[in-house]
Write a structure and sequence with these properties.
- By secondary structure, the protein is α/β, with parallel strands linked by helices.
- It has a single domain, classed as 2,3-Dihydroxybiphenyl 1,2-Dioxygenase, domain 1 (Roll).
- Helices cover about 20% and strands about 25% of the residues.
- The strands form two sheets. It has a four-stranded mixed β-sheet, covered by helices on one side. Strands 5-8-7-6 form a four-stranded mixed β-sheet, covered by helices on one side.
- The two termini are about 25 Å apart.
Length: about 170
C-alpha cells in the first residue's frame, strides 16, 4: 500500500487498457466479446431483469454477453466493463456509483439514448477538476452510473495544474 504522503511513481500505461488516449480523434474500442477472467465486475440486483437488461443495452450501449433466463444477465461494453444483473429487490438510490470509461464524442449520444429510454434518467454532463466529462445516469434498478470521458489535457489548464499538484505531469 502506498502512503499518500510519499511521491508516487506514475508512468504511461495506456497499452494495458482498452481506453484510448483522449483527443478529438479518439475512437471507441467497441464491444468486446472475448471470454476472460474478469478483474472487476459489478453485480446489480433488479426487480425487473428484462427492463434493466433493455436499458443497459438500448441506452448505455452494453451487449448481452450471455444470459441464464430468470437468473442472470452478463452485460459487457468494452473489455473489463462487465455488469451482472440478477433478480432481487430494487435498492434505494444511494451515493454509491459505478463508473465506466467512454470517449468524449459518446457523451451526448449516450445522454440522448438514456433520456429516450427513461426520461429524467440523466443529469447534464459536468466537467471535473481532474479533466473529465462525466454523465450521471440512474438506471431502472436505481444504480448511479457515471460515464466518464477524459478530455485532452491542455498543459496550461487549471486541470493540468490540479494534476501536477498531486504528482501527475502533463
Amino acid at each position: 500500500m502506498t502512503d499518500t504522503n510519499e511521491p508516487a511513481d506514475y508512468y504511461d500505461a495506456f497499452e494495458t487498457s482498452p481506453v484510448p488516449p483522449p483527443g478529438p480523434d479518439a475512437v471507441s474500442p467497441g464491444v468486446y466479446r472475448g471470454i476472460y477472467g474478469m478483474p472487476m465486475f459489478v453485480t446489480l440486483p433488479t426487480a425487473d431483469l428484462e427492463a434493466s437488461r433493455r436499458f443497459w443495452i438500448d441506452a448505455l450501449g452494453f451487449v448481452d454477453l450471455f444470459s441464464i433466463p430468470g437468473q442472470l444477465t452478463h452485460l459487457r461494453r468494452w473489455a473489463f466493463q462487465d455488469v451482472l444483473l440478477v433478480p432481487g429487490e430494487a435498492q434505494p438510490l444511494s451515493t454509491r456509483s459505478v463508473s465506466f470509461a467512454c470517449i468524449t464524442s459518446e457523451i451526448d449520444e449516450l445522454a440522448a439514448r438514456c433520456e429516450a429510454a427513461l426520461p429524467g434518467s440523466t443529469s447534464a454532463p459536468r466537467h471535473t477538476p481532474w479533466n473529465t466529462i462525466d454523465l450521471e445516469v440512474i438506471t431502472p434498478e436505481r444504480t448511479r452510473v457515471l460515464l466518464t470521458a477524459a478530455k485532452p489535457l491542455d498543459p496550461a489548464s487549471v486541470e493540468a495544474q490540479n494534476l501536477a499538484e498531486i504528482g501527475i505531469g502533463a
